[in-house]
Amino acid sequence: MDTMARVKVTIRCNHCGEKFVLRGRREKDRIDTGFKQCLCNNIQDFDIEELAL
Question: Domains of the chain: which residue ranges?
């Protein structure tokens, strides 16, 4: 498997319910999308789900 595979993820904020769909790169056991924080300034309370590309 490619260590830099492209993946699509859905990030949902557990504070305000905002939903973001982003593409990122899988690096070993992590997915890097560049996502920093929600519009409500939440930086850590998220549900993250990987989607099929």
Answer: 6-51
Cα–Cα distance for residue pair 53/39, rounded to 1 Å:
25
Task: Report yes or no: 31 and 7 within 8 Å, Cβ to Cβ.
Answer: yes
Q: In what order do the strands lie in the sheet with 46-51?
A: 30-32, 19-27, 6-13, 46-51
The token pair that represents 8 in the structure block: 């699509």
Residue-wise pLDDT tens digits, 12-33: 999 999 999 999 998 888 889 9
Tell me the DSSP string of 1-53. --TT-EEEEEEEETTT--EEEEEEEEETTEEE------TT---S-EEEEEE--
Name the pTM for this structure: 0.80
